[in-house]
Design a protein that fits this description.
about 35% helix, alpha+beta, five-stranded mixed sheet, three-stranded antiparallel sheet, about 400 residues, 11 helices, single chain
């Protein structure tokens, strides 16, 4: 490795204006005979006191058959993985009178071992919810996963553990970890997720807190706090689920998913209660809307229900405007249009209300519905209506 400031190669100098660079040997530019015929001069990139030719000669004299110099950085920089040094001798040396004197032999065994073996933060045998053994692997770098070992490997693992020989058990553990991590990397379909996912039809945002603990009778219990549901009776957690809790990379996320699975029925009740409350508020806004006769309905209702998304019924469609339109479009995946004055608007058929309303509510929105707005220009949304004059067109 060349020191900082030095580079490999040099130039084949044919004249003051013709200098041809080479990276390793002058033969890259032209063969020896042609260089001799043209009386070319070789200028190597050397630093004072650092002669590559002398170093290469000293190495060849010691038995080296090939010598190559590398730049410290750049295109020709030397950036091998540490595994390259396996079974190789690495040393520092000093050139003295055309001979290399070894200063220090470097022990690279630990670096090579790290490069040739995956390092793990956690290796553990766990049972899944069906009581089947799985090997959980969490590398120091990369994604953690679980995989089902072969029966023969399971027997080896537990035999080593039962013999109470710590060194032997650790060797088997590391051997299986290397084997099954490589297998899971090559075949991702064999990976298992022991930490599960929450049911698709429940709203996780309703879970405000989860407490999982060991009871006096040595059982494991889970008690969540779910918005709007008051005090909830504890439910039992399996020993396998309890063990997985303590190795989960995202413990809070695992607790929430576990609670969502154990209390899915309670969550659905909370969702129904939330939907019913939203419908009551919607009904109140409908009644208020009937008493208003112009576009003041939009501004007054938005002023009163600032955190609610308003849907206005116009004949056989529901519409939403301004910032409400953007929020609705984002959840429902429908397009936003621009009306007079550049006002954003979205609309959908009345028949889709029962389908779209639950989606909006589950996304965390409060939704209000107002029936039958008179038709006015969109620009009237941003300007006061004077002297009871009613515009003739709605957005």
């Amino acid at each position: 490795m060349l020191p900082a400031g030095a580079t490999t190669g040099g130039h084949v100098v044919l004249s003051a204006t013709d200098r041809r660079p080479f990276y390793l040997t002058p033969d890259e530019v032209m063969p020896v005979q042609e260089r001799s015929e043209q009386q070319a001069r070789i200028v190597a990139h050397n630093l004072p006191g650092f002669s590559k030719q002398q170093i290469a000669g000293a190495l060849m004299k010691q038995g080296a058959s090939y010598v190559r110099f590398f730049n410290k950085d750049g295109l020709l920089g030397y950036r091998p993985d540490d595994s390259y040094f396996k079974d190789k001798e690495v040393f520092t040396a000093k050139l003295n009178n055309k001979e290399l004197q070894v200063q220090e032999t470097l022990d690279v065994e630990e670096a090579v071992d790290k490069a040739t073996h995956v390092q793990f933060e956690h290796i553990q045998m766990l049972r899944d919810d069906n009581n089947r053994w799985a090997l959980y692997l969490r590398p120091t770098e990369g994604e953690a996963f679980s995989i089902y070992p072969d029966k023969e490997d399971l027997n080896r693992f537990f035999s080593a553990v039962k013999q109470n020989e710590q060194k032997s058990a650790q060797e088997v553990r590391m051997e299986l970890a290397q084997k099954y991590y490589a297998l899971g990397t090559d075949r991702p379909e064999l990976r298992q997720d022991l930490f599960g996912t929450a049911p698709a039809d429940v709203d996780l945002s309703l879970i405000q807190r989860v407490n999982i603990f060991r009871a006096k009778d040595d059982k494991f219990l889970c008690v969540p706090q779910i918005k709007g549901m008051g005090k909830i009776e504890a439910r039992e957690v399996s020993r396998q689920q309890w063990q997985r809790l303590w190795i989960a990379e995202d413990m809070a996320g695992y607790k929430t998913k576990l609670a969502a699975t154990l209390f899915a029925d309670v969550l659905k009740q909370a969702q129904e209660a939330k939907l019913a409350e939203n419908r009551r508020e919607t009904s109140e806004m409908k009644n208020e809307g009937k008493e208003l006769t112009d576009w003041k309905i939009f501004e007054e209702l938005k002023d009163k229900y600032k955190d609610a998304v308003l849907l206005f019924r116009d004949h056989d469609r529901y519409e939403s405007y301004k910032e409400d339109a953007d929020r609705v479009a984002n959840v429902l995946g429908i397009s936003v249009s621009e009306r007079d004055g550049g006002i954003h608007a979205v609309s959908f058929p009345n028949s889709d209300l029962d389908k779209h309303l639950p989606k909006l509510v589950r996304s965390g929105m409060r939704v209000g519905i107002c029936d039958k707005l008179p038709r006015v220009p969109v620009s009237a949304l941003d300007t006061p209506i004077e002297n009871e004059q009613r515009p003739t067109r709605r957005m």
